[in-house]
Specification:
522 residues, mainly beta, Cyclophilin, single chain, 4 domains, Gyrase A, domain 2
């Protein structure tokens, strides 16, 4: 057996293989002969991240079923597409001289070699429309930059680790910049939205490309509805998430506290996973342009302001507003996020099958700020459920204990570093967001070996060069190039999404790290 099974969580496993060809060949085999219980597979440079459906554990039995589908050595991945795309490039990248030195070629020879190669998309990740392309010229196997840039312009053509990629949007990144193109990689007005998808081939040509308009996030503009009068932070639309888009490099996104989202919807008789407004901290002041019934769950409490005075709403309970009534949501003493639902739902169009706003990928409804409004949809609703008990939420001075599964890359760290990770309290910094919680503490270190890009799960704790962990939340990139030392249990993700800056986190693992072994095999 030429594969290794690494734990990610109770419903997620990482399958490590010898190289890209072996990875894609196994991916093909699993698509041709699916394993019952597998929900999604994210292919990467040398791994498959396999997520199971509810109730199906990611254990040795799943590993055995995957191993049974291992192709014979030397199996060539199937061609997924016959499509070839011409991509005009202006070769003026900041790292062109460094690329020339690393390849032992002149800059003109680098450009010629890049154009003479036929590049094929192996997989997508990192950002929507970001395609990892390979070619037959081994000279393009280049290291990442020693220190990543904080900002790389959209359209940048870059090289790293035998791959060529094009940044679809402005983002941080550590690849070597070769040039730039004006052809958009991801456009929601196209179907499919990603120009480069697994199997598609790309031929690079010299010159300036045609400029194409790219569709921006859905802007919510209505004449009457629930209107934002004041908000400290942009208000986002979130539902249970966007699934099945890994082939375009799109992650799931969705509410950071799914339990709170569902409690708010049930309180007004909506389906549990309907979209609601995700409110970060506060204060927020909203006005009803017409009569409506709302519910607020999560961190904050609602106060209704009407001509007769103010009325404090019981936490999580449904409440009615008449036209011109207002609701005030103060910044909570505990927790970070609240979810406001409306009976019959909000009138918001879905994007790629979900109403969620992905802040990293810029997919979904545009954020609501002061002056914006969202209209009720008036869909049929059900009986209002009894108010559900909400869990206690952390305050800024609290220490929050989060259970983790060690893996998949715990063995990239020494026993001393693993102990340091588990024994100390990591402080949540103000730089945290829906993408991830940035932590500060006694830094972790490892050797300088580069990790080929691989799938990352929500809850993954990635260790970048700084040694300061990043706990990935719902808007994290689909793939990443830094080792993940541990992954937060799915049952604790709601709690993680409510941890405010200033609080501290201690990670607890029930079991030591160990690859998943098959019975009778080592």
């Amino acid at each position: 057996m030429n594969m290794r099974f690494l734990p990610v969580g109770p419903q997620c496993i990482l399958v490590e293989l010898a190289d890209l060809d072996a990875t894609l060949a196994l991916f093909d085999a699993l698509l041709a002969d699916p394993v019952i219980g597998i929900a999604e597979i994210v292919p990467a440079a040398r791994t498959l991240m396999v997520t199971t459906t509810a109730g199906v554990p990611a254990d040795k039995h799943l590993a055995a079923a995957i191993a049974q589908r291992e192709p014979k050595a030397g199996t060539v991945p199937v061609a997924r597409s016959t499509e070839t795309v011409d991509i005009p490039v202006i070769y003026d990248g900041e790292d062109l001289d460094d690329i020339s030195r690393l390849m032992g070629l002149s800059t003109a020879e680098v450009v010629a070699a890049h154009q003479d190669s036929l590049w094929q998309v192996a997989f997508c990740g990192f950002a929507p429309g970001f395609a990892y392309m390979t070619c037959g010229d081994d000279r393009f196997d280049l290291p990442r930059r020693p220190a990543p840039r904080t900002k790389i312009p959209a359209g940048s053509v870059a090289l790293a680790g035998r791959f060529c990629g094009i940044y679809p949007q402005e983002t941080p990144g550590g690849w070597q910049l070769l040039g730039r193109t004006e052809v958009p990689m991801f456009d929601l007005s196209r179907d499919p939205s990603a120009l480069l998808r697994p199997g598609v081939r790309a031929q690079f040509v010299k010159g300036q490309g045609k400029s194409y308009p790219v569709k921006t996030p859905t802007v919510i503009k209505v004449s009457a509805g629930l209107r934002v009068i004041q908000t400290a932070f942009p208000i986002l639309v979130q539902d249970a998430g966007r699934f099945g888009q890994a082939g375009q490099g799109v992650s799931s996104s969705g509410a950071l506290d799914l339990g709170a989202l569902r409690r708010a919807n049930r309180a007004v008789g909506n389906p549990a996973n309907d979209p609601a407004l995700e409110i970060t901290l506060g204060p927020v002041r909203l006005r009803a342009d017409r009569s409506m019934t709302l519910a607020l769950s999560g961190a904050a409490q609602a106060i209704v302001i009407h001509p007769q005075g103010r009325h404090v709403i019981e936490h999580g309970a449904a409440f009615a507003l008449d036209a011109n009534d207002e609701v005030l949501i103060d910044s909570p003493a505990q927790g970070m996020r609240s979810y406001l639902s409306i009976r019959g739902g909000f009138d918001i169009p879905p994007v790629l099958g979900s109403h969620s706003t992905d802040t990293l990928a810029h997919i979904g409804p545009a954020a609501l700020t002061s002056g914006d409004a969202v209209a009720p949809a008036g869909r049929p609703a059900f009986a209002i459920a009894d108010r559900m008990t909400a869990p206690d939420l952390p305050a800024a001075e609290d220490v929050v204990v989060l259970p983790v599964t060690l893996g998949p890359r715990t063995d990239w760290f020494s026993p001393e570093m693993i102990a340091r990770f588990l024994e100390q309290e990591w402080q949540v910094t103000a730089q945290s967001s829906r993408v991830g919680i940035r932590l500060s503490g006694n830094a972790l270190s490892r050797d300088g070996t580069e990790l080929p890009s691989e799938g990352t799960a929500t809850g993954a704790i990635q260790i970048p060069h700084s040694g300061q962990p990043v706990l990935f939340l719902a808007d994290h990139p689909l793939t990443g190039g830094y080792p993940v030392i541990a992954t937060v249990h799915p049952k604790a993700l709601d709690l993680a999404g409510q941890i405010p800056p200033g609080a501290r986190i201690r990670f607890v693992a029930e079991d030591p790290f160990a690859p998943i072994t098959l019975e009778g095999r080592q």
